């Protein structure tokens, strides 16, 4: 696909689909609860469909109708052994969360994924689970992963890597394990799992102390089903927010956006850069903070961000780098090592593609430097995405401002935002 430069503003009300992280949890948690859950506005992207299919193949009755599904849960131990391996496509969230959940079930299972997922680290989840006596065999640290389901033992676990996927995988193992499991998370990361489990009456308590989160899970307490209305995804909104900021004469309104404070680093960063973003109609839905947001084109300044904000916006660096490329001064984003183990090595792909687009940037250690004052003129650039959806969408937005770009393997967008192209073209974009 090709994204062409536009000379108009971005205007209107693009529809942002349901949040990906919350959608995964809206399948997993109701599937092991007692009762019927109706989930509305669920994201029907490839990643979430893999999670839905995994639970269907473990015997859970899930009625599907577009963006709404109904899940019939039968309790913590009601899952059936899948007849074949669970193939999870590109979805790191499905893999890490399911490895945890399945390690405490009474059957064995095998998890596989696509080329990108098969090269991502899985020991970061199997190692802490082995402290609970889990029996998980990786393939040189990656997928395929073989899980021997069994009764685990509760334990105290420290998580040093800032990762909600690791934390959530351990929580899902702990809710089916006798006794109290205590998790100390040294960096606070997105807390959708804890929030939703609280709503489902799980035995979970969370204390946030300085930069740490201390989570205690009392295992074997049955969960009680609750209907869920999934808010729209801030990470998907990010492409539209930045597009509106960098194109003159823009004004967009995004409705029903999740602004959970463990996820809102992009907003903080952009406001620090001088972005005009207004929040209205802010409310709480299923324990999640939600708001409508208006974005107006703005003169952005560069900024320096430390590693402490990275965990609050880890998926947003590709599009933040695009914003920084059109700011009035240089930016430095520090402490981005986790970007190297996402759907692609995002730090390297940001550097490579910005450089190919004529933007002065460099990576030193895990820090990214962008100098927007020193642009070379280029045209018709090929964007290398390595099948990474967020790289594909971020550089489509860059193309709309700078020059025509060809996005390779753009099919990856279906991973998180199947309607991205239509929505962007509806508000003034030109993707062909
Ligand atoms: C996610 C957590 C993040 C994020 C991913 C979704 C989740 O990964 O990058 O897109 O839903 O828990 P890490 O927790 O590994 O950083």
Task: Explain what the structure shows.
- With 432 residues, the chain is of the alpha/beta class.
- The chain has two domains: 2-18 and 231-426, Enolpyruvate transferase domain (UDP-n-acetylglucosamine1-carboxyvinyl-transferase, Chain, Alpha-beta prism), CATH 3.65.10.10; 20-229, UDP-n-acetylglucosamine1-carboxyvinyl-transferase, Chain (Alpha-beta prism), CATH 3.65.10.
- Helix content is 29%, strand content 28%.
- The protein has helices at 20-31, 46-56, 92-103, 123-130, 164-174, 192-199, 234-246, 265-272, 307-310, 317-324, 346-356, 389-401, 420-426; strands spanning 2-3, 11-12, 33-40, 61-65, 68-74, 86-87, 109-112, 135-139, 142-148, 156-159, 180-185, 204-209, 212-218, 223-224, 228-229, 251-258, 276-285, 288-296, 304-305, 331-333, 359-364, 367-375, 381-383, 405-407.
- Strands 3, 4, 5, 14 and 15 form a five-stranded mixed β-sheet that branches.
- Helix 1 (20-31) runs parallel beside helix 2 (46-56) and helix 7 (234-246) packs parallel to helix 10 (317-324).
- 52% of the residues are buried.
- Bound molecules: shikimate-3-phosphate.
- Shikimate-3-phosphate binds at residues 21, 93, 163-165, 168, 189-190, 314-315, 338.
């Amino acid at each position: 696909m090709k994204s062409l430069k536009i000379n108009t503003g971005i205007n209107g009300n693009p529809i942002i689909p349901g949040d990906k992280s919350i959608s995964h949890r809206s399948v997993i948690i109701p599937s092991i609860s007692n009762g019927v859950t109706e989930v509305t506005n669920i994201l029907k992207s490839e990643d979430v469909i893999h999670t839905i299919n995994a639970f269907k193949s473990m015997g859970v009755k899930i009625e599907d109708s577009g963006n709404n599904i109904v899940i019939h849960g039968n309790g913590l131990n009601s899952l059936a052994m899948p007849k074949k391996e669970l193939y999870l496509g590109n979805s790191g969230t499905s893999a890490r969360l399911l490895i945890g959940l399945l390690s405490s079930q009474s059957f064995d299972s095998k998890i596989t994924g696509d080329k990108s997922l098969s090269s991502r680290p899985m020991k970061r989840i199997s190692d802490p689970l082995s402290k609970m006596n889990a029996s998980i065999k990786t393939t040189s640290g990656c997928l395929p992963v073989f899980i021997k389901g069994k009764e685990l033992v509760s334990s105290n676990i420290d998580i040093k890597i800032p990762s909600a996927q690791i934390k959530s995988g351990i929580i899902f193992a702990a809710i089916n394990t006798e006794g109290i499991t205590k998790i100390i998370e040294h960096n606070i990361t997105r807390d959708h799992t804890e929030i939703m489990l609280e709503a489902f009456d799980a035995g979970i308590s969370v204390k946030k102390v300085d930069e740490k989160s201390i989570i205690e899970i009392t295992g074997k307490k049955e969960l009680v089903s609750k209907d869920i209305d999934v808010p729209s995804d801030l990470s998907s909104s990010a492409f539209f927010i930045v597009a509106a900021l960098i194109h003159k004469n823009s004004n967009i309104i995004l409705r029903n956006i999740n602004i959970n404070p463990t996820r809102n680093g992009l907003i903080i960063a952009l406001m620090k850069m001088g972005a005009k973003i207004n929040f209205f109609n802010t409310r709480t839905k299923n324990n999640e903070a939600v708001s409508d947001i208006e974005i107006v084109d703005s003169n952005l300044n560069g900024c320096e961000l430390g590693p402490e904000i990275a965990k609050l916006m880890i998926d947003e660096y590709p599009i933040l780098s695009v914003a920084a490329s059109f700011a009035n001064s240089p930016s430095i984003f520090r402490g981005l090592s986790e970007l190297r183990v996402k759907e692609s090595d995002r730090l390297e792909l940001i550097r490579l593609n910005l450089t190919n687009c004529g933007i002065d940037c460099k990576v030193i250690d895990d820090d990214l430097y962008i100098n927007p004052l020193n642009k070379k003129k280029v045209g018709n650039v090929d964007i290398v995405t390595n099948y990474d959806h967020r790289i594909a969408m971020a550089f489509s937005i860059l193309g709309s401002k700078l020059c025509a770009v060809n996005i390779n393997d753009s099919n990856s967008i279906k991973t998180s935002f199947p309607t991205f192209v239509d929505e962007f073209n509806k508000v003034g974009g030109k993707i062909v």
